[in-house]
Amino acid sequence: MPIWILLLWSALAQDSLDSRDAYLLAARAYIAQGNFVKAAESLDLVLDADPDVGSEPYLTLMECRLKLDQKEKALEAAERGVKRYPASGPLLKAAGALILQENSSSERAGELLERATKALPQDPGAHYAYGLWALMNHHEEIAIAAERRALALSPADDLKVQAQTFIGLGEDALKRPQRAEAAFRAALAANRKLPNPNPSAALEFVMFLTRQSRQGEAQKLVDEILKFAPGFGPAHLERAKYLSAQGDLESALAEAKIALDQAGSDPKSLRAAHALLARTCFALGRMDEAEVHQSWIESH
């Protein structure tokens, strides 16, 4: 689920702080120039001298550290900020989201995000983030309730897609297929209205339909996904699986190769594509090709 976690950051708010403060203006100027090293150094000095200057510098420092790919230091800034400002909703949400991104099973992330929903009861992003944590940790009822609260607060359209998708996943996990399908269909309807529809969210509906043995409907949706996201590897993989099951091995092989090409460095996608390619090549009698994919699987 990494593509869904990134959406958390778009929803982060910031506490008010006197923007006339020279240090913050300097840090913002460095950020505007793309000089995140200098911005972080400036903020570190200020926070070391006076850790009670406000919550915004901690949020800004987190942003700088993330831009520099310094996740550990971003986490340190987050925890320092929460310690000094334990009631700051934006800090609680940002810290919880960051920890969740690094460790999806973290109880600390759940604690901070739950506190964020109480500090920011009218913020759909806070409820969305808490719902994501709950879903990833098999607290489906909590997840569904949190996502419904997010939807009730009229979130942005992309957040609606994600929230409805998470509700569908939660309902499916609880063996309530009719409720799950209703949520997935709501997500799909909202997704179709986006300027750039989210293929990952739509694919979750594909997987649900496949689990329900409704392969024909699933493949129609795969076709739709590949129209708006032709390079989306997981959809090509689902098409390859379907073609293989139908006995069209040559077409399955072609689709699986596309899926592999589009997998990038994602271990799960790479393994799934190599596994299907190995099976398909074996079935076609192409032993040399099959061995290449099997060797990759065994070495990873």
A few lines on this structure:
The protein has helices spanning 2-5, 7-10, 22-32, 36-49, 56-67, 71-84, 89-102, 107-119, 124-136, 140-152, 157-173, 177-192, 199-211, 215-228, 233-245, 249-261, 267-283, 287-299.
Characteristic key phrases:
single chain; 300 residues; Serine Threonine Protein Phosphatase 5, Tetratricopeptide repeat; globular
Description:
With 300 residues, the chain is mainly α. The chain has 18 helices and no strands. The two termini are 21 Å apart. Mean pLDDT is 92; it is low at 1-20.
> Major beta sheet, specifics?
none
**Secondary-structure element series:** HHHHHHHHHHHHHHHHHH
Distance between the termini: 21 Å
Helix run count: 18
Number of strands: 0
Compute the gyration radius: what is it? 22 Å
What's the layout of helices and strands?
Layout: H1 2-5, H2 7-10, H3 22-32, H4 36-49, H5 56-67, H6 71-84, H7 89-102, H8 107-119, H9 124-136, H10 140-152, H11 157-173, H12 177-192, H13 199-211, H14 215-228, H15 233-245, H16 249-261, H17 267-283, H18 287-299
